[in-house]
Amino acid sequence: MDRGAAESPIGVFDSGVGGLTVAREIMRGLPAEQIVYFGDTARLPYGSKSRETILMFSRQIIRFLQTQGVKAIVIACNTASAFALDEVSRENSLPMIGVVKPGARVAASATVNGRIGVIGTEGTVGSHIYRDFIRKIDPRITVIEKACPLFVPLVEERWIHDTITRQVAERYLEQMKEEQVDTLVLGCTHYPLLRSMIGEVMGDRVTLVNPAYEAAQELKRLLDSEGLTNPGTDEKGFPYRFFVSDLAESFKEFANSILPYDVGMTQKIDIEEY
Ligand code: DGL
Hints:
This protein has 274 residues and is of the alpha/beta class. The chain has 12 helices and 10 strands.
């Protein structure tokens, strides 16, 4: 692959702000890489929509990201990774990864007692994709899945340390404790932002797996193997660009609350045109 391609940005997309947890890990772990981020804020949530709809949205977003000259795509959304990654990567020659496989792989190697919990949106949990990947790696592992849909609005409300969120977490995670999982996959973009609270509720003997972090590690390996790692020698100004399908201002506010950079500008585009 030529140097021009290696210097191109990574395309990252999600239904909205949640995928910023993945972008943040890429910024930390691969600081020489540029990112074009798209948040589908006009059409979220993805977690309660059908496979067909999410596939159609993902195809449009990929077409948009291709207009931005990206060299690889990270599907930051767990639901879109579950519903669309296989199809869209078959349809495109661009290297693509999602967050589910990297998270499942690490969970399978982290468990000692062979009991893994997976929490996510209704879409992700209903697809059983984490369970299927984990059991492909080791069929002896028991996977307990639970949809925790209220976590997404609570995070977006920024009630990250609120007692209400704590009560919701205790209620959702009760079953995981009863089932004595020793590993819990935070299988939704928003959940890493509740990591410390979930960790307190589950107790420190439970390993929390953050697919956002694991996806950034996987991206690093992918770029290296494809010869696409940005040599990062040229100074080019702010390396991150943000696009949304609606509500650019509130996206920017949220982004500035979780990223270690001032996001500056977020541009609204009409994603239905792609
Ligand atoms: N980004 C979604 C996910 O990780 C959560 C938010 C939504 O439902 O759109 O599954």
